[in-house]
Design goal:
single chain; 162 residues; mainly alpha; 85% helix
C-alpha cells in the first residue's frame, strides 16, 4: 500500500507544481517525481501481475489526476494531460516490462522506464500547454530516464526490490 500512496503523492505534487510554476518546472518534476512514479509503477506491476493489473493501473492513474484536480481546480488542464500521459506511458511501460520479463529486475525497470518516459514526455507537455515545446520534451525525457534510474537504485537497494 505504501507504493500506491508514494505514487499518488508524487503525481499530485508534480501536477500541482506544474500548475503553479508552469513549463519551467516540468524538468525538475520529471526527475524528482515522475522518475519515482515510473519506477514505482514497475514495482506495482510485479505485485499486481495476474490480479487485474490493467484495471488497477488504470484506477491508479485516474485517482492521481482526480486528486490533483480536487486540490486545485485551476489545474484541470494539467490533470487531463497527466491522465492521458500516464495512461499512454503506462501501456508502453507495461508492454516493455513484460517483454523484458526474463531479464534481471534492474534491466526490466530501466528498460521500461525509457519507453514510458518517451511517451510521457511527448504527451504531457503537449496537452498541458497546448503546444509542442521541444526543449521541454527533451529535458523531461532525459530527466525521467535519469530520475527513474536513480530511484531504481534507491528502491532496489532499500527493499532488495522496488
Amino acid at each position: 500500500m505504501y507504493l500506491v500512496l508514494l505514487y499518488l503523492a508524487a503525481v499530485v505534487a508534480a501536477n500541482l507544481s506544474v500548475a503553479y510554476f508552469g513549463p519551467s518546472s516540468t524538468i525538475i518534476n520529471a526527475f524528482l517525481f515522475i522518475g519515482l512514479d515510473i519506477t514505482t509503477r514497475d514495482a506495482l506491476h510485479e505485485r499486481w501481475q495476474g490480479r487485474r493489473l490493467w484495471l488497477n493501473m488504470g484506477l491508479l492513474v485516474l485517482v492521481g489526476s482526480i486528486i490533483s484536480y480536487l486540490f486545485n481546480r485551476d489545474a484541470a488542464q494539467i490533470a487531463i494531460a497527466s491522465f492521458a500521459a500516464f495512461a499512454l506511458s503506462n501501456i508502453a511501460d507495461t508492454v516493455v516490462y513484460h517483454l523484458l520479463r526474463r531479464y534481471p529486475k534492474f534491466v526490466k525497470i530501466n528498460g521500461s522506464n525509457v519507453a514510458s518516459a518517451a511517451v510521457d514526455s511527448i504527451t504531457f507537455p503537449t496537452i498541458a500547454f497546448g503546444v509542442f515545446i521541444p526543449w521541454v520534451v527533451a529535458g523531461q525525457f532525459l530527466a525521467k530516464v535519469l530520475g527513474g534510474y536513480v530511484w531504481s537504485l534507491i528502491l532496489v537497494r532499500k527493499k532488495g526490490r522496488p
